Amino acid sequence: MEQSGTSALLQGAVQDIASDVVSALRGGDHVRMSGTMAADDIEGGLALAAVRVLGADLLLPHVLFPTPPAPEVLAVFRRTVEAFPLRPDAAPTVRWSHWAMRRTLLRLDTPLNGPPGMAADPEPDAGWLDDAPWQTLTHQLAVLTPLALPGEDCAVALAARRRPVDVARGFVRAVRRRDWQQAAGAGRWLTLLDGVPDTLGLETGLDFVELMGGTDPRVALQVQAARVVRAAGALV
Amino acid sequence: MPSIDKAIHDTTSVRTDLEMALDPVEPDGVFRDSRECAALALLSADTKLLLSPPTPRPKKG
After folding, report:
1. Per the count of CB atoms within 10 A, which of A217, A222, B27, B45 is most buried?
2. Do the Cβ atoms of B12 and A46 come closer than 8 Å?
3. ipTM score of complex
4. What is the pLDDT of residue A113?
5. Chain B contacts of A6, Cβ < 8 Å?
6. What is the pLDDT of residues A116-165, one digit of tens each?
7. Residue in A closest to B19 by C-alpha
């Protein structure tokens, strides 16, 4: 499928920001956003849109390690949440990624001894995952990787936890289809799930996904996130 | 195209692309070639499951 000019620009911007997150995950450092973030022009709008696509994973290093994010990065994150409010007809994945961003903002933007800056949002509905075939389940979970966090107990994480074999099957399918982004996302989820078949060879599988797709920073981000989670003691 | 029209067009395009990125359709799969299978076999000496087709499930009804 041919990409529009803005689509290619948006994907490039997403990859740039994902690279910044990967660097922070590898180095245990703060996320640094190298691009300009002036929201008044189209480039600034594009950058905010790129942050919206990456979603809560922009601040993933600060959730996993955990450290406070740089104020300017947090400000961009907050501005992105405000710039792209939910539309009434938003798809479930859009609702959940928006929820994840607001929840992350609530978690990281609250002064240590002060009142919370915003109230916690009610969770969107996740019923569409319960009846989803394993292929669809894996695809949707790979889109919602910002929710794949240790200790996460939202409805999407619970849906994944109920179907570890289906997610494992989806991981294998994604590898066989050379869909490295989906494979990396499914692999990140699998590091958090109990009941994953030992015969899957998840660690080797993630190495392979990185070998084949790791030049895409979005793939590298998921693989690196899985490694950080595994190193922190999550189930593998 | 006047600059204001271009700005509106660009912004609309970004919105459209953003919505597609947040709710993407699964891309068509491309199955591995033999070179990649060989690489996987080398990496996965102890594990053969990735080289196997997905386990068939019995059909209901």
Report:
1. A222
2. no
3. 0.78
4. 47
5. 10, 13-14, 17
6. 555 678 999 999 999 999 999 999 999 999 999 999 999 999 999 999 99
7. A94
| A138 and A229 part of one domain | yes
User: Do residue A49 and residue A130 come from a single domain?
Assistant: no
Let me know whether A98 and A139 are in one domain. no
- The domain in which residue A86 lies consists of 1-121
- The answer to whether the Cβ–Cβ distance between A93 and B54 falls below 8 Å is no
Interatomic CA distance for residues A236 and A159, integer angstroms:
18
A169 touches chain B (CB under 8 A): yes
B26, B32, B43 member nearest A176 (Cβ): B32
Residue A18 contacts by C-beta under 8 Å, 6 or more apart in sequence?
A54, A57, A217, A218, A220, A221
| Cβ contact, residue pair A208, B40, below 8 Å | yes
Which two tokens mark A93?
């994945």
